[in-house]
Amino acid sequence: MAQAKSGDTVRVHYTGNLDDGTVFDSSEGRDPLQFTIGGGQIIAGFDRAVVGMSPGESKTERIPVDEAYGPHRPEMLVQVERSVVPAGMELEVGLHLELQSNDGTSVPVRVADLNDENVTLDGNHPLAGKDLIFDIELVEIV
Fold this sequence. Notes:
Helix content: under 10%
Number of strands: 9
Radius of gyration: 19 Å
Low-confidence stretches: none
Number of helices: 1
Order of helices and strands: EEEHEEEEEE
């Protein structure tokens, strides 16, 4: 039976969990995820986990921080004065925003903390600093 290898386009069903059992993403109820192994479309550890699987095979793979979204980087936290937030904008912890950098690119951030004077914005990926556990089923090699 064929085994998935680098360069193959594959379709997988998956469920991603944290150590505490929290499900952070799943393809359940949706079409399988399609990607090319080694194409840089998904996190490195997930890519690596699918290599060698055969269609119909399932496995559970623990992906360490360095093969997922990397460590949580404190330098990605920035505190701004609340006065720079547009008037009338309702802020709450967890709110996702997009900032414009000096070169015009969009930078996704999350409100990490706020008080009357300041807002702390976090530019880290929400799963940065976490090991991830994926249940993976290889549906097909396309």
